[in-house]
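Protein folding task:
====================
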Amino acid sequence: MSFPISTTSAANSTLKLSKKARRETPENLLRHHLDMCSKQGDVSEALRLYDSARAGSIPLSLHHYNVLLYLCSHLSATASEADRAFEIFPQMSVDGVVPNEATFTTLVRLAAARGDPDLAFQFIKTMSAAGITPRLRSYGPALFGFCEKGDVEKAQELEAHMVEAKVAAEELELAALFRLNSELGRGEDVYRLLHRMRAELRMVSETTAELIEGWFNSVQAAGFGLHEWDVEMVNKGVLTGGGGWHGQGWLGKGQWSVGRSEMDKEGVCRRCRDRMMSIDIDPVETEVFARSLAELASQKEAKADFTGFQSWLDRYGPFDAVIDGANVGLNNQHKFSFFQLNYIVNELRQMSSSDKLPLVVLHCSRVRGGQADNSNNKRLLESWRRSGSLYVTPSGSNDDWYWLYAAVNCKCLVVTNDEMRDHLFALLGNSFFPRWKEKHQVRLTVSRDGPTFHLPPPYSIVIQESERGSWHIPTIAGDDIETPRQWVCANRDMIVPSLSHPRLVQI
């Protein structure tokens, strides 16, 4: 007896055969084998597959080419295998395959590895001309190559190309430029790069701090500077720049006194007694940041949930302080402590000029089950709800978006020990966000005597240039709470100008 084959079964069989046929096309088999070579770092086999494909007229896609070029740049590639990349790349154009940023970045790295930063830079220019925006990873190899060769003109040309492309340099790139210019005794460019570090890094690593100390201790550094300068222009520069720097050039002349220092609680250098400035944040910048933060949060969170929170905040806000409830309740605790969280809430209320409760942001998992079912904690949560000082974020949400937005929107303090360094906070960029965090984050330490608040410092932790020409460079060593932050202090003995003195000051 025969059984009829259903139409659905026949269609499924045909679909399976179709998928198998697509998988077994020469192009897809080549892709599979090249991907295996990439996983295993097998450069020679990948090149053999490429030669075989060319001989068999198998068309290659962008993915095929990028995998091949990547393998040519692999550490296991011989010099001759690496050189094959410069033969493979032109073939892309012949095949009508349009390269992308990854293609050019691999070529830049290969050229730089050959000791040819000029060729690497040419690939960057070609990429830009093709309308492909280079990234920092595209520029780095060429920049380091010029710096290693001591070619300062080309290094500065590439630096200018980065600025024009709006690609922000990071510490490695700025440190390489600083080293090159300081070794060549180019004082004006060293000055310019210190200001780039001030604006783009704020503080530096130990390695970069040692580079900076090396400059200030050098004979060349002693020779740069003015015997006299216009005090009014310097003061105007400080005012225009927002405080903490003037940008008028090296002030003073002669040997620098260089050493490590710490700041006291008021921001006074323990070594030279200079006072660090507190640099204000532009209110317009804050508004722009709040809008961009809301847009980003709406993309990452369920839009309806975050829009609902914004409406809730408009109704119950503004607040004098916001608490990252999970972070505070778990601080120095094995289990979440509502007692500790409530203590912080009451302390902040006493500190508030309006006697208003701070906003507590908690994920829904913190208010259901466990400690939340305790009768005292239930009453506490209910009292916060009734007073409009508790916001519970929904299931699947990241409560970081909510407490951060609330603090920015209310222009108030946020209590959290979160270092705000993970992927979420990296999305916010390294321009405005670190400045905002420095001015608004309150951290906690908990001891047997109870929690202690560490309010934002009365000065800005950023490279600072004083009106009398001294420099203070904060390092990442220390955190201003458990261990004092280390600063590079560089100054020269000079007459300190005052507004009552003549316009020109001499040393």
User: Anything to note?
Assistant: The CA atoms of residues 230 and 504 lie 5 Å apart.
